[in-house]
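Worked Example 4.2. Read the sequence first, then its structure tokens.
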Amino acid sequence: MDALCGSGELGSKFWDSNLSVHTDNPDFTPCFQNSVLAWVPCIYLWAALPCYLFCLQHRHQGYIVLSRLSRLKTALGVLLWCVSWTDLFYSFHGLVHGWAPAPIFFVTPLVVGVTMLLATLLIQYERLQGVRSSGVLIIFWFLCAVCGIIPFRSKILSALAQGKISDPFRFTTFYIYFALVLSALILSCFREKPPFFSPKNIDPNPCPEAGAGFLSRLSFWWFTKLAILGYRRPLEEWDLWCLNKEDRSHVVVQRLLQERKKQQERAARHQAAEASGKRLSSEGEVLLGGRPQAREPPFLRALMATFGSSFLLSMCFKLIQDLLSFINPQLLSVLIRFISNPTAPTWWGFLVAGLMFVCSVMQTLILHQYYHCIFVMGLRFRTGIIGVIYRKALVITNSVKRESTVGEIVNLMSVDAQRFMDVVPFINLLWSAPLQIILAVYFLWQNLGPSVLAGVALMVLLIPLNGAVAVKMRAFQVEQMKFKDSRIKLMSEILGGIKVLKLYAWEPSFLKQVEDIRQDELRLMRQAAYLHATSTFIWICTPFLVTLTTLGMYVSVDKNNVLDAEKAFVSVSLFNILKIPLNMLPQLISNLAQTSVSLKRIQHFLSQDELDSQCVERKTITPGYTVTIHNGTFTWSQNLPPTLHSLDIQVPKGALVAVVGPVGCGKSSLLSALLGEMEKLEGKVYMKGSVAYVPQQAWIQNCTLQENVLFGQALDPKRYRQALEACALLADLEVLPGGGKTEIGEKGINLSGGQRQRVSLARAVYSDADIFLLDDPLSAVDSHVAKHIFDQVIGPEGVLAGKTRVLVTHGISFLPQTDFVIVLADGQVSEIGTYAALLQRNGSFANFLRNYAPALEDREDEEVLLIEDTLSNHTDLTDNEPVTYEVQKQFMRQLSAMSLEGEGQGRPVSRRRLGAAEKVVQATEAKASQVLTQEEKVEMGTVKLSVFWDYARAVGLCATLVICLLHGGQSAAAIGANVWLSAWTSEAVVNGQQNNTSQRLGVYAALGILQGLLVMLSAVTMAVGGVQAARLLHQALLHNKMRSPQSFFDTTPSGRILNRFSKDICIIDEVLAPTILMLLNSFYNSISTLVVIVASTPLFAVVILPLAVLYLFVQRLYVATSRQLKRLESVSRSPIYSHFLETVTGSSVIRAYGRSQDFEAISDAKVDTNQRSCYPYIASNRWLGVRVEFVGNCVVLFTALFAVIGRSSLSPGLVGLSVSYALQVTLALNWMIRTISDLESNIVAVERVKEYSKTETEAPWVVEGSRPPAGWPLQGEVEFRNYSVRYRPGLELVLKDLSLQVRGGEKVGIVGRTGAGKSSMTLCLFRILEAAEGDILIDGLNVADIGLHDLRSQLTIIPQDPILFSGTLRMNLDPFGNYSEEDMWRALEQSHLHTFVSSQPAGLDFQCSEGGENLSVGQRQLVCLARALLRKSRILVLDEATAAIDLETDDLIQATIHTQFEACTVLTIAHRLNTIMDYTRVLVLDKGTIAEFDSPTNLIAARGIFYGMARDAGLA
């Protein structure tokens, strides 16, 4: 280098340490300034050029119009190039005139000039490629300016020293150059206008990141606006930005799908090549082997190929950050050496402090770029996986669907895709952790020699221990989940059957069951908490023990090993770096294990068979026909026998074809085969034209009724109204709260079965397709509606006349109007022809008709109209085809039931039908209004302090205090240990040795172990306190809910109550305690750091206040915004899964209407909505990180600065102590805000649980002062005195001033129309409803004076809907275990269940499934009868089932009641008159008052209301 600088006027020295280092006024030699400092920016730009050009070429953003800014930038670049070349020409001028300049004066201006030219060209090229803010050039100009500062100072100093300017020309050009460079730097910080011709951004609220400048991106400044908005008011969904184009679902999923397709094609080619190779060797085998199964390429490979580029970028960031993290310990060692050397020039210290700060800031910026990159990649992973799974779910075959439950498929999306998102941020640790460990061990070895191995060995030994603890924790978690599931299942059953529990007074038994499960759960929780305490102990003690063993080893190996501050504190900071990868590795490994399981499951799902889109030929067909099948054989799955075989069917255009046959003969399968849903084994299917399909189970989406009917088509009001009218939906619309705009719940929950089926039919009618496949749409509606629909829609006069209609039906009355009938038997066509022809043929069809006909001939059509839609919920009847006798009898009973409920013939039927629906609607409206008010109150704004106080009280105030004190003690012990270490390192060295090392080591060890023990104690206390809080909060909630009045359960959706028991209790159980411990940890860490720094450099106290203000300001902004973002994220997540669930269940309808792509788009939109809140949440964490770490970096800077300033009074040990503490503070500060924010969002659970623990309760179960006498009621007399009641305050009276007396042993039937108050009477008797005025007396005792359980346990009810709970039959009959085996068997004998139960191997311990699903409705009704027989009190209330349960059961129940309850008072709410015609008296209610009350014969003679009912029922 010296040669370059020549022997000219500059002298030839390149480096002179006396001038640059060992001086109080440092400077570089002119040669160094002219060479290295001038070249550094140039080298950077040329090095970055290839990659940058490559990136620019792949960027298609349109170009930016030549603006003023761009012209200015370009002009500056040209001027700089001119200035450099002026220098060059000046050197040539010198050469010509004989004073030869040094070679450097030719080389540098040439290099700088060419580089400036390159920069100018880059400015223009970037403009053409649409780059608005160039990071590469900002860094270049920044480097130019920084490297220019030194010559800037140097030239002025030398001019002042010499008293003259030695080279005026170069002096002037340099300052012009410097001014231009600074201007270029400032201009480059401004953004250009958006590109021209770029795809127009139509987003209403585009993400500011896309247009943000380089510096704004680096510091996440673009997020600030949202943070401030979130602080001012809670964020709403419309405040969120739209996604960047490259993060949107359709873009990400398309990329992934294309990549998968490429790989599949590659795999197929590879396989074909292999196969052809084999074929040559063994042709015969291949022929025999059949087609080879295509191997699915690994899904992971497709993922990596799609997202590989961003992964590489993240790796670069991570690598730089890892390397940077090792610079600060080296700088610390320089700083300590500087403090130890009193003769060193002061500027060294300031330089080191500045470098520490710069290094920390760079680390912060790069780390958060890395995190942003990797988390966004995780988001894309999840988007891609969800999209691919969704698309696959739309095309899987039915056999695949049968193998896996819908829940499992949804789990792929919710759990497994989420796992990927969670593991992605850690994936780089696979290479980064080993790298960090190797580097740390290398630097430690340099510092302490082989003694390091002792510390490292200890760390490695602790890994399996940590692993073992983690495995045990996982096992506990799995077991705990089992208990939690069973508790939630039991709770959901209790909430479902709460009314029955209240009527039977069974709450205590179920309360005990829940508490027993909870006990087990808490036992496990306690064990897990102790384990957690152990792992905290290990985690806190590890760094300390490692330092202890290493330093102990170091001083004990050799007497001459002196422990000085540099060795001790540099080692401590290196061990702190080493701690992180070692702790992360076990976590990473377990995460990877989980993710690999998820990957296998996803891979398995994606490689499943898909439906063959070609199996139905859509293009060609025989003229005149729309549907033909030639010799078709179909199966549901390859491994099942064919369901349909050798079908030959031709349907002419515009024909109405009926498909009939017994249950299970393949009628529905035929339609599925036409839709291409079945696997075709042989034959051909042709279908020409668009298709509409109405399945047997109506599939209703969770959207408005109108959207369900339109099903993605544009609204044509006239056609829409016509469709509704034809499907008899107009009357329903009048009743629904929002008409056609009414939101329909999931699976059509707020519509009756008949309404659902009609909506499904209206969807088909509106679609205006060419072919209509109708799978028994008339069975779910009542006969008069069925007739209406057939006439108006399906039949020859209907809306669909002229279209091709294939109708599967059980309704025989419609067959004469069809064009021809296909009769199926055992999957084959047994007969085909017109109705008349088939009757004459006298085949199986004719027999089938004769069985049915009598039932239909008995009644005229007009009378059929009496049948109401009450049956719409009980469609099971229509599925089994009963025998004649059954049908007739059923028919009779329905008629009698209907007329009894009816309003007389005056009013039109269609309006009447909606009574039940109206009730539902009112209830839903009440619910809706309540939902909104409740939810809003809870979720907004900050959490009140009272909630924290509530939790502290639940943990126990003493425990809370002890935990805080123990943490304080631990911090004190930690500070003590480190201060002791610092004192040890500052101890004088005698003869190259330190004397009392063993005492030093002993005290250090004692302090460290004390610190560990205090942490462990506090963790154990927290564990005990946390479990206690969980127990108390759950207990309060459970006891309150069991005692809540029935009205509470009527107005509150059970889902919301269940949410308190599952999610909120889960947070209290598992999340709160660890979060609080973490918060205390980081809080005390931060405090102790400040204490140590202030104690060692008191000057630091000056900057604490401004830094604290900045920190708190950032914290307030962040917590408010992130809390709301998190909430929006969780709210927008469930629609993705519920829409997926809906899609999986309705995939055949979606495919039939050809709407797969629309649904993919809807799913993408829902995922995007969710990502819209995830993305700012990720950005908010980065925004916070950069700002908080900046505060931390300032702490490092000021600590080092003040140490340098006060170095005369400080020992190296103290400086080492305070700076090594400062280097850790960043992490603590960051964690503190995160945990505060977590705690705030989680403590809400306590608030929500508290809210439901304080709702009002019903009357006490037992009133000790006034218990009824034993054996009460003896007579069974019931008296109502001036009794009035309302359902809830503010509603109208349902019973008005009722007075009546029932003598003991009387049998009284209660009748009246819907809403007359029949059921309310029984509810009053049991005090489910409390009196508004008046009294009820039983045997002269006022029921309002005694406890609820004393009352309810002495009455017996057989409720309307038989509810069973999962558990043994014994538990369902007698949950308290009050009765003997003989009693139970006798009750079963009398209730006709004896044969069934004794045939079960388990007998009385027969397991009933949830809701008694494994028993028939009739059997469940008999179980309720058995309960009544066991209790056998003097008063029996029988609430007849509205659903016409099967005849036999009904007869059995009536007979048993006649014989077994002969001496009892029986009150029957009758829906069918024939059951009460022989009762003592009949009470007729009308609008809540008594209309008639006398014996049945007298009432019929009086020709009043009862007579009218009896006449309609054909009994009078």
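Now turn to a second chain, presented in exactly the same format:
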Amino acid sequence: MMAKNKEPRPPSYAVSVVGLSGTEKDKGNCGVGKSCLCNRFVRSKADEYYPEHTSVLSTIDFGGRVVNNDHFLYWGDVTQSGEDGIECRIHVIEQTEFIDDQTFLPHRSTNLQPYIKRAAASKLQSAEKLMYICTDQLGLEQDFEQKQMPEGKLNIDGFLLCIDVSQGCNRKFDDQLKFVNNLYIQLSKSKKPIIIAATKCDECVDHYLREVQAFASNKKNLVVVETSARFNVNVETCFTALVQMMDKTRGKPKIIPYLDAYKTQRQLVVTATDKFEKLVQTVRDYHATWKTVSNKLKNHPDYEEYINLEGTKKAKNTFSKHIEQLKQEHIRKRKEEYINALPRALNTLLSNLDEVEHLSWSEALKLMEKRPDFQSCFVVLEKTPWDETDHIDKVNDRRIPFDLLTTLEAEKVYQNHVQHLISEKRRVEMKEKFKKTLEKIQFISPGQPWEEVICFVVEDEAFKYITDADSKEVYGRHQREIVEKAKEEFQEMLFEHSELFYDLDLNATPSSDKMSEIHAVLSEEPRYKALQKLAPDRESLLLKHIGFVYHPTKETCLSGQNCTDIKVEQLLANSLLQLDHGRSNLYHDSANIDKVNLFILGKDGLAQELANEIRTQSTDDEYALDGKIYELDLRPVDAKSPYLLTQLWTSAFKPHGCFCVFNSIESLNFIGECIAKIRTEASQIRRDKYMANLPFTLILANQRDSVSKNLPILRHQGQQLANKLQCPFVDVPAGTYPRKFNETQIKQALRGVLEAVKHNFDVVSPVPTIKDLSEADLRIVMCAMCGDPFSVDLILSPFLDSHSCSAAQAGQNNSLMLDKIIGEKRRRIQITTLSYHSSIGVRKDELVHGYILVYSAKRKASMGMLRAFLSEVQDTIPVQLVAVTDSQADFFENEAIKELMTEGEHIATEITAKFTALYSLSQYHRQTEVFTLFFSDVLEKKNMIESSYMSDSTRETTHTSEDVFPRSPRGSSLDYNYPDSEDDTEGPPPYSPIGDDVRLLPAPSDRSKYRLDLEGNEYPIHSTPLNCHDHERNHKVPPPIKPKPLVPRTNVKKLDPNLLKTIEAGIGKNLRKQPSRVPVAPSEDIDQSDNYAEPIDTIFKHKGFADDIYAVPDDSQNRIIKVRNSIVINTQGEEENGFSDRISKSHGERRPSKYKYKSKTLFSKAKSYYRRTHSDASDDEAFTTSKTKRKGRHRGSEEDPLLSPVETWKGGIDNPAITSDQELDDKKTKKKTHKAKEDKKPKKKTKTFNPPIRRNWESNYFGMPLQDLVTSEKPIPLFVEKCVQFIEDTGLCTEGLYRVSGNKTDQDNIQKQFDQDHHISLESMGVTVNAVAGALKAFFADLPDPLIPYSLHQDLLETSKITDKTERLHELKEIVKKFHPVNYDVFKYIITHLNRVSQQYKTNFMTADNLSICFWPTLMRPDFENREFLSTTKIHQSVIETFIQQCQYFFYNGEIVEAPNAAACHPPPSNAVQMVEPMVPLQLPPPLQPQLIQSQLPADPLGII
């Protein structure tokens, strides 16, 4: 059973390969190929094929187990599968004859038969005979595979007869054929199949092969197979054919001629080779080794196939060739890189044409080696050539191998380099020549296209030489230069016309009339016309300038890093630090000083006399003063000594002070000259900076002979010189003394020196008290214009070079403190140096005792800015004008400088101001004494200045309300509690416009802590440091502070109720009734217990009211009186209660005005601008009209710029740019008057509400119908899409988004730029998120029709009354579907955006409710002229809030969202009148709250409504 289940074993056949064998005499020098044929068949892989097999063996090898003393070899077996799938095993035996390597005769074997008989044997036997592999196996059998012949015996089943058809080696073919014939006869006797294998057909001799074929044809069934063991052609075929003859059941193989079989084999090899080469080419690193790559590829089929066919050796050779190619390619690329880099190296080392133009390449190489940069460009290698060194692998080393320069390619590069230098020199010359040609053409204007100019230069030699690209590049450069110059000149022109821009309140936005006025004035200027072809750039510069005027900061200053504020901060930070460090070294341990070095200066022996007197009063040079002993080191020097300066300050003697003694006018003058010389010389040579600040003391010597009549004169002159030098003056004490110098004088002088030393120590004390730093007696502001052609060091040097200069309080980076003796006492002066644009905020908001206005006498713009600034300064504040130029000679040599200096001096004369000049080349004018007289003048007027400031601040506090009128960056009026000087024991009394008996305002000490609200009550405010104007420019408005209870004051009288009634009666009788929509509480509601009357004008201001708080009485009959910005017209002449008398008495005092009304020069400048735009009016008419127009403008008064227009909300709360002027006001007044007359006529149909035009330029995009701005592919207007994308990308979390107003100039600029280029990037414009948000709202405000159609407003109103929330939302959704498709898409887009904004409410604080308040007027365009609409404003706002909250429900089929506030979910009451706060669009600060006043308002007792 088991035998049946065994699988049948494949048949096994034994084939004997026979052929010519024997000694060299028998077979020649080589065999017939029997061994190679057997080798190729049994082991066909190329690596296992050995082309050399020897038959000459030693006796030992012959007796080994492989040969085994036999003349045949066992090659092993091959399992072969035929075409029919039947396998068989073929054992291969080679019959040969082994020759003894000693005797060269056949070895003796057990079988002594000759080869022919032995080869024909059909049975072979050899015990333990091993399989033969190669010749190297003999003797080393253990190193090879050991496989025995099966059972030690084999039965031969067929014979393979080998015939060599090649030329042979010393062998005749006929002899071989004869041997084969005999062998064949012997083989045929065995009756075994025989096949002839024609071997070595790759070296075939044709007639030999034909003879073999003829031999075979004479035999029966004898087949010839043409083979080649070397190329593995038909080797397998001959064995397969023999097996078929032994087993007839197998298919007969097709015998293919050698050439055809060879072609097939070679094609197979070629294909495998191609695949292998591609495989090898994947290796890109020429450092790769065969071992690494072969291990990596050994399992790849293409690799294995090639190895089998061609062998490892050929594969390795192929790989080596590829690696060599990679290396050569790498070298080639490196060489190419070096050659390409050579021109750059030559440009670095040999860039001068004059040096290399006539040098050979070898000379140039020597020159390059001497260059300092040679090592950075080239590397000299120790081994050469470079491509055979490891330098080729240093890919990061870009230096060129120096031996590469010896090649012809490098020399050619050098020659090209020289030629390039020559041509480039010529090209540059021609470009410059062409540039000069363009500069000579006068009509080329900025912005002129190249095409308009080319016709004028086409014949130019330089133009013909250079290329078109070069000519365009030169013209472009020329254009950039003239454009840049024109823009700089245009900007300079704008500054020259500063009065045009600074005459308006800085919180306003210029109206279209103002812009027209600006263009009308500027259009006459050639510098304006120069940018005619660049009108958009010109407009952009103008808008940028206006934006800077209205919002000036040092960050946005047009001078950039040359802004005066930045320069001053840097200079003070460095100078004050060095100053303090130097003083700390000089006066180290000055608090406990024991030794005093004194320098005594006098004339005609006075110095020595004083020194002798001091020594007389001393004991061993020790002087007792105030209970302490001081060691004195005296150094008297005569003032006439030529060694004065060298003796004054040496390394061994550093004086703490200098006593200057005099006894006559001559000696006093001489001493003054010496001190000036000492300071000037010390400052010039900079030997020691503090030498110039040495403390001096003037001492008057006693007149011993008689009482001199000149003593009072000497005292006066001495005191004057001491004031000028800022030093103490020691007078002769009263009484008669026998000596020239008195002990009292000496002690007083010593105390002065010690005090000065102690003061210098205190200045540099590391921990000064805040109280000391803040106690400034005077606050002076020095103004300079950014970009002026002088350094801030020049204008600050008079203070920085002073020994009494120190740093201001921490945080005041642009201020310094100056200690000066003014009058009889030392004063602390705070000098704040600012640019003019920063000084504007200080001028309006802060207490300033005086201004030092600096201008450059070389620059008209500097004078223009000074005029504009000075015009608005109150004439109570002293001013010092300072002109800056190089030297005094400029005045006589330069007419422009002379004109500007004369103009400055003339203005100073007109306004009674100080004028001086600073010269950059002079040292004397850098001394503090330049401003001593000005400081004295300021000190004299200090009380009046502070009283005026307190009065103005009081009125501003009374007239403004933070919540109703948001405070602008510079418009806010801040309250400060400034400490007075040590002389001021009491603050100035508050100014009362009614009388001295009634106090309407708190005292100055109290008013700094409280601010009046709209009812006259006080609530606390926080004070701010002086130099906080930078912080005040932030647009954030602080929240109102809850008022504290009033503290009763017993010394304040109440306002007489009868007086109040008199005022009201006067208003009611004489004022024309003004329609107003702002509710005013009647007089009955006034709390009689309040200490203050209600300032009605703080709620609103009528158009007829004058802005000026100070009104000059007309006459005794028709007297106009301003009381806290309210007008009382006195028609009776005198009032019973004495009111008019008090007013007259009060107005008898001089009221502050502005310098522009005091200087004809300043006023004429402003009037000249007015004449240019109103040329049809006379001068008087123009001035009158100008004043009238200014009064009518809705931009607040000059005294209080915070007052906002009363009725601006009529044009739409959300409109960002509604302007008003006198003409519009007049039209409205006439319209209302005309309407009042026609009340009795039948009412006509109401006209459609048209919003005022916001833009002041023509646009083909903004203000267009929405349908014209969209397409079916892009349903959202591009501008809306850009704005929303910008906001959501950059500012979705911005606090107060859509609530905080952006820069109006930036908003206009965004739209203007978009008008010119719809593809403009908002990010590249550098605008803020709030400006983009404002521009987006302005887009909707400018639409001809609101986004939510008027036709649906009533439906929305009715739907909002539905109480059920779900039903209400459903109805609203149906109304939205009625929108025009275009409106619907845009509405959906903007509401979705607002919903995303509201989702960030935790960071931007903009809930849906806040957003709806900001956006509903924009989306619905309400008509505030309609009283009926006012009663429904809250409902419409809540509708927009619902749309934002329920965005997903309305537009995306989402679920209804629960509102965060339960109250927000309920619909508004049906009675809309009861829930609306009519007439008051904004909340007022506490304690005044908006009253719910509608029809219940009683008759207005004042006759205002």
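Notes for the reader: DSSP finds 58 helices and 29 strands in the chain. The CA atoms of residues 1286 and 1322 lie 7 Å apart.
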